[in-house]
Design a protein that fits this description.
Radius of gyration of chain A: 13 Å
Shape of chain B: globular
Largest sheet of chain A: 7 strands, mixed
Strand content of chain A: over 45%
Helix content of chain B: under 10%
Mean pLDDT of chain A: 92
Low-confidence stretches of chain A: none
Helix content of chain A: under 10%
Mean pLDDT of chain B: 92
Structural class of chain A: mainly beta
Largest interface: A-B, 26 and 25 residues
Oligomer: heterodimer
Chain lengths: 115, 112
């Protein structure tokens, strides 16, 4: 089946630095990928829709200059958290549209801790 | 704004008990999915329901999509400790990108 690989699984960074999270579709091409944020024991909040070869579409309230999304190829989307602060600490998850209109596959997530 | 409200938010039951989780919205969704997520992992798809009134069964799990496609329910029969996890409903908004909007989540703990 379709596999989405997310890397790294865990990262700790210092306040003020930037962190890049990668989301790769391993055996299929993904023209559309989605980035979510999740706080402990809470649901997933959609941050943005990543479209290959074009600008990402951000949800209301999400700072696009803070969360930079690049989808330069059909198999890779990246999320860069710029000038990270402790409040950016969270679990970030990507997903990709797979076969069919309702098909989605999720990555295993990245636990970001900003100290 | 969370468009999909789930209830209950937390549920702790004994092995063998039955339970129902509800997913409600004031908006119509083109379809709805249910996921189960374990700590530190991404959500895993359980089922997709598309037609209003549709009922799907997956072993001990029964899923129903409301007639008006605004709500859904998940019923688990004879719960087992392996059913423990975060259950999420998610609605499709339709359109070209067909964004998936998640419900508020139900954290289930099944005690042996």
């Amino acid at each position: 089946g379709a596999v989405v690989s997310q890397h790294p699984s865990r990262v700790i960074c210092k306040s003020g630095t930037s962190v890049k999270i990668e989301c790769r579709s391993l055996d299929f091409q993904a023209t559309t990928m989605f980035w979510y944020r999740q706080f402990p024991k809470q649901s997933l909040m959609l941050m943005a829709t990543s479209n290959e070869g074009s600008k990402a579409t951000y949800e209301q309230g999400v700072e696009k200059d803070k969360f930079l999304i690049n989808h330069a190829s059909l198999t890779l989307s990246t999320l860069t958290v710029t000038s990270a602060h402790p409040e950016d600490s969270s679990f970030y998850i990507c997903s990709a549209r797979t076969g069919g209109y309702y098909g989605y596959t999720f990555g295993s997530g990245t636990r970001l801790t900003v100290v | 704004t969370q468009l999909l409200e789930q209830s209950p938010q937390f549920l702790s039951i004994q092995e063998g008990e039955n339970l129902t989780v509800y997913c409600n919205s004031s908006s119509v969704f083109s379809s709805l999915q249910w996921y189960r997520q374990e700590p530190g992992e991404g959500p895993v798809l359980l089922v997709t329901v598309v037609t209003g009134g549709e009922v799907k069964k997956l072993k001990r799990l029964t899923f129903q999509f409301g007639d008006a496609r605004k709500d859904s329910s998940l019923h688990i029969t004879a719960a087992q400790p392996g059913d423990t996890g975060l259950y999420l409903c998610a609605g499709h908004r339709g359109g070209a990108t067909n964004k998936l909007i998640f419900g508020t989540g139900t954290l289930l703990a099944v005690q042996p």
